[in-house]
Design brief:
The chain is built from 8 helices and 12 strands. By secondary structure, it is of the alpha/beta class. It has 2 domains: 169 residues, Nucleotide-binding domain of ferredoxin-NADP reductase (FNR) module (Rossmann fold), CATH 3.40.50.80; 123 residues, Translation factors (Elongation Factor Tu (Ef-tu), domain 3), CATH 2.40.30. Strands 4-3-6-1-2-5 form a 6-stranded antiparallel β-sheet, sandwiched between helices. Helix 5 links the parallel strand 8 and strand 9. The chain is globular and about 50 Å long. The N terminus is likely disordered.
């Protein structure tokens, strides 16, 4: 049962908080939590730099230009069908400035009646070869649009210094085209697969988390409870904040979000610093002995190393280490996007 009163974490951080609030005051639960430390170094772009390794592992065929495979008439046509399907060239329909270093991109699918074809959870890979490049740049991105959206697919993408693909995307104009392929399978979500899940995200690592959360709360049969810990450098770096707040306001008994900033403004009411064991002991909704829960991790390399350890490859989760291992969680309880 969920408590009807708000979180009392601000009153005593030493007492674990494993309940969901039904009042808006829960948003200020960690206003007194301010560990002093620097934000993690590195970037999500660095974590996905093994371009051809990722491409070869998921898509051994390099054939391009294949049309979407036929599907049954009772479902919307799918733009991306995986397998031997080649890259699809999509037209950039619109670009919006999201914040100081992030843009929202909308690409048109091959037909207005098409859906993306992505499942939960999965991503797409993008390909671009510049005139001076010996090999094409390959990068995975998780769309932020609904999987049932027809005719388009959206991405929210941050530009990284020295990031070949993110720089190319940020230089694109409406009408230009980009090659994409997928879906890349991630964690296979099923309704009520876990009674409760926790998400530990940093920066652009929020996109696969949002994909899973959106699927959970769009399905009235799925009763999963979700706790999100989301770390960023500044308040302006928080991606998808309005979408997360909408989930929080709509499902206050099942979704809680806690934000951490490395450089918070004076008016900031939640946490500062980065993810610590003290914080996770207070926030995580289940203990290591509760084997039915699942913890998802996605963020820059420094966060991976500190919280869960790095993945070895897209298909090899690697050993669990870091804070979660020290707390007693097992590899079966953690998934690294």
């Amino acid at each position: 049962m969920f408590a009807r009163s708000a979180f009392r974490a601000a009153q005593n951080l030493n007492q674990p908080v494993r309940r969901y609030a039904s009042e808006s005051s829960a948003k200020t639960a960690f206003k007194n939590y301010k560990p002093n430390s620097n934000f993690y170094a590195g970037s999500t772009a660095g974590a996905v730099g093994l371009a051809y390794l990722l491409f070869r592992e998921y898509f051994p065929s390099t054939k391009t230009g294949a049309a979407p495979a036929a599907i049954t008439a009772d479902a919307a046509p799918k733009a991306f069908t995986g397998g031997d399907q080649g890259f699809i060239s999509l037209k950039l329909d619109s670009v919006e400035n999201y914040n100081h270093n992030t843009k929202k991109f909308r690409f048109s699918l091959p037909d207005a009646n098409y859906v993306s074809g992505l499942n939960i959870a999965s991503a797409l890979i993008t390909k671009y070869k510049g005139p001076q490049d010996e090999k094409p740049v390959i990068r995975p991105y998780t769309p932020t649009s609904d999987e049932d959206a027809r005719g388009y697919i959206d991405f929210v993408i941050k530009k990284y210094e020295g990031g070949a693909m993110s720089t190319h995307l940020h230089n694109m104009s409406p009408g230009q085209r980009l090659e994409l392929k997928g879906p890349i399978p991630k964690y296979p979500w099923e309704p009520n697969k876990h009674p409760s899940i926790a998400m530990v995200a940093g920066g652009t690592g929020i996109t696969p988390m949002y994909q899973v959360a959106r699927a959970i709360f769009s399905n009235p049969e799925d009763k999963t409870k979700v706790t999100l810990v989301f770390a960023n450098v500044t308040e302006g770096d928080i991606l998808l904040k309005s979408e997360l707040q909408e989930l929080e306001n709509t499902y206050p008994n099942r979704f809680r979000a806690f934000y951490l900033l490395d450089k918070p403004p004076d008016s900031w009411k939640q946490g500062s610093g980065h993810v610590t064991q003290e914080l996770l002991k207070t926030i995580l909704p289940f203990e290591p002995k509760d084997k039915d829960g699942k913890i998802f991790v996605c963020g820059p390399p420094g966060m991976y190393k500190a919280v869960s350890g790095m993945k070895k490859s897209p298909q090899d989760q690697g050993e669990l280490s870091g804070i979660l291992k020290e707390m007693g969680y097992t590899e079966d309880q953690v998934y690294k996007f």
